[in-house]
Amino acid sequence: MSSALGRPVRVGVFEHDPDAFKCFRNLPHKTCTRPGGEMEIVEMVMKLLNWDWEVVDTDKSFNVVNDFGNLMDDGNFSGIMGLLAEDKIDMSGLSIRITPERMKVAHFTFPIRYFQQVYIISRPPESDFRNFIFSTFSLEIWLLLLGAIILVASFRFLVNVFFLHHEGPKTSIGTRSLLEVYAMVVRQKTPLIIELYSGVILDGTMILLTMVMYIYYQSSMNSKLTAPSVAAVPFRHQDQLIDLLEHHKKYLTYYMDVPLEGSNRKNVRRLKKIQNTSRIVTHMDEKGLIMEMKKGGVFYSTYDIEFLPNAVSSWNKEQELTVIRDTTGIISYVAFGFSKSNKRLCNRFNKALVQVLPGIPRITLRPGYGRKKDAEDSMVKAKRTSLSLVKHLEQLFELYVIGMCCCVLVLLLEHVANRFWRSRREQTYVITGSETNLDKLKDLVRKMSTSTLRRIDRLDSTQTAQDSQREFHQELPAIPEDDDLDDSIFTISPTRF
């Protein structure tokens, strides 16, 4: 039975693996066991409608290949959409993404597939966990933890100085307060002397938070070392990709005259700016695109989400390509297109298509056609990980060396500072000591002078007394010697009493 057109329906198709490939050009007159997923759907609907139809190879007839239809500057469409708009074909044998612009020049059937934005890149290397020491927490968490330690240490310092009146240098008290809190965080023993209830509450809360933080850090670090390795994907969403493009860390590659579609208005503006400022490499064939992706290019396209159950999947093991599905991107409806003058034909096709819709996923996932892509992370098996200096402990060793260098530097600075202050003290002591000795010398000279003068005065007085006594004795008469008298010249007579 012929169609409503009175002639066979012209179905425009170009080779597109796995939707139309191999022997699809022989349909419907010759048998073709696997013409492609979408060609099988068209063949089933045509049999249900009992229509005559023919395949039009757009590559041979109109030189249209790998072009579903893009809006050009003159308002017309290229590719399959251009052929539909000009009635050169009656319907598209390949499903086309439905857009408001395309709906103005063609009619579309019920959506048969759902597409989402994808990015194909060269397979990234496995994630490197050499930074597992710091990568466990984000930068914000590390800063908050450092701030909490400083805050608690400051509180302990104020309590020790102004409430408990601890004696000693303020720097020593502050250092001890900081080390006590730090020791609490790393679960080391420290002499804690708590004399205030507020300090008990503060330290108790800090111990609770530290316990949770420590357990999480330890378990997270262990999981990074024991869990299977994952691919180090450079981006996962369009926003992250555009950031890399703006900083010239990545570049785009795609077919000629393929517009970039933003997932939101902001990204649309950013992509237009990138097209004028960033590097974009286009190719006419798939081989060139694969070579460009191997060099670091990012292929932008859309793909059936039925084939991509995971956000990051292995696109092709032999080619070592990885596909990233933008889970925040736009989900597009894909359907067969009919020319604007064939609305009745489209409606009748829809009635028969309803009977086939439930089985479409099974058709497109047939062996030899498309298949669900394996998750990229499942490509790497779990393996035993042994800590090594080069792969894991390199960062820890670097931290130890840096800490030792800082200690040596501080020790040298302290030695220089101590020598400086010691020399200052010695100079002060010499100056102060010399002044003291001079004063002592002056006092000694003054005392010696005073003693000498006093001695001279005493000698003078003694000499004068001796001279006077000598003169007195010289003036006295001589006393005759008498043997009968006492030797004493002062004899008292007993008769006088």
UniProtKB/TrEMBL annotation:
Which keywords describe this protein according to UniProt? Membrane, Transmembrane, Transmembrane helix
Q: Which PANTHER family match?
A: PBPE DOMAIN-CONTAINING PROTEIN (PTHR22714:SF3), PROTEIN CBG02446-RELATED (PTHR22714)
**Record-linked InterPro entries:** Solute-binding_3/MltF_N (IPR001638), T25E4.2-like (IPR040128)
Entry keyword annotation includes Transmembrane: yes
Residue spans making up a coiled coil are none
Give the residue spans that cross the bilayer: 141-163, 196-217, 399-417
Organism field? Mesorhabditis spiculigera
Indicate the segments forming the Solute-binding protein family 3/N-terminal domain, all copies: 74-355
User: Does Transmembrane helix show up as a keyword for this record?
Assistant: yes
Q: What protein am I looking at?
A: Solute-binding protein family 3/N-terminal domain-containing protein
Superkingdom of this protein's organism: Eukaryota
